[in-house]
Amino acid sequence: MVEGWLPQGERILLTGASGQVGGELLKLLEARGEVVAPEREAMDLADAESVRKTIRAVRPRWIVNCGAYTAVDKAESEPELAYAINAEAVKAMGEEAREISAGVIHFSTDYVFDGLKSSPYVETDSTKPMGVYGEGKLAGENALAESGAGHLIFRTSWVYGATGKNFLLTILKLAREREVLRVVADQHGAPTWSRDLARMTAAVIGRCEAMAEDREPADVLVEVGGVYHAAGGGETTWHGFAAEAVRLRQEAEPGVRLAEIQAITTAEYPTPAKRPANSRLNCGLLAKHFGWTMMDWKDSLREVLAEL
């Protein structure tokens, strides 16, 4: 993919640039064209009218929505706010994008499923969220699909990286402070490196631009748009993720005493929101249509730890 593939004078509107995926994407996309990444004061995702005004002012060629309400447990007590950000804002993006033939890239989640399937989920499996967060994200997916905008929805899981707030950084911090950490071992999925997800997104935009020639993104997305699963390769549990992270950190710092990682069940660690027992996502469609294979979680974990 060559730099500067965005047509002259065109823009990308990026939301959530202060987050894990958005921050990585901002660095990648700025090398390829003009990126507008408004802060909350300029574009409030909790206010659909603010979203519409920004899109009308910027008139982007692409809208890349990394912004989201991601506090899974807090969403149970803040359903209106979670729904406004995860569904109403996405609906506004879709409707405005349709008017200007912009392409929309939106990130969704394994939480749209109930986790009861015994094998990895494919894009066509029935959805059945178990809580407010998953319901809002699914409503956002549906609103975007129904808006008539050309779009790509990337469902991902267990996102982490070297910055921000995430499971890995929390575990490594607590491992230095405690003798024992008890971590759930009966929820299965794959950790996804924020940078790998950002690289994939930038590559997909580049591929779509290469296909576009003199067409608008919306025209290309009629052919390749829709829902794709994009999560780390391989599979593990939260306990397995934590144990491997602490093991690798112990190898790097043999003189530091780190916590023992003990396995527990979901029932032993109750939370306000239910978690899917199976968060595994089959990413074969992403490889088939765009030639992209997400990194194995163990490989990405080593790269992230090397940055800390």
| Spatial strand arrangement across the major sheet | 2-1-3-4-5-10
Tell me the name of the CATH homologous superfamily of one domain.
NAD(P)-binding Rossmann-like Domain
What is the CATH C-level name of one domain? Alpha Beta
Amino-to-carboxy terminus distance = 29 Å
Given the C-alpha coordinates, what overall shape results? globular
Helix content: 40-55%
Summarize model confidence as the mean pLDDT: 96
Structural class: alpha/beta
Radius of gyration: 19 Å
Beta-strand proportion: 15-25%
The tally of helices reads 10
The name CATH uses for the topology of one domain is Rossmann fold
Number of β-strand runs: 12
Describe the overall structure:
This protein has 308 residues and is α/β, with parallel strands linked by helices. The chain has a domain at 11-164 and 191-233 and 280-295: 3-Layer(aba) Sandwich (Rossmann fold). Helices cover 42% and strands 16% of the residues. The chain has helices at 20-30, 48-58, 79-100, 132-146, 167-177, 194-212, 217-224, 238-252, 284-290, 297-307; strands at 11-15, 34-36, 62-65, 103-109, 150-156, 159-160, 180-184, 188-189, 192-193, 226-229, 236-237, 260-264. The mean pLDDT is 96.
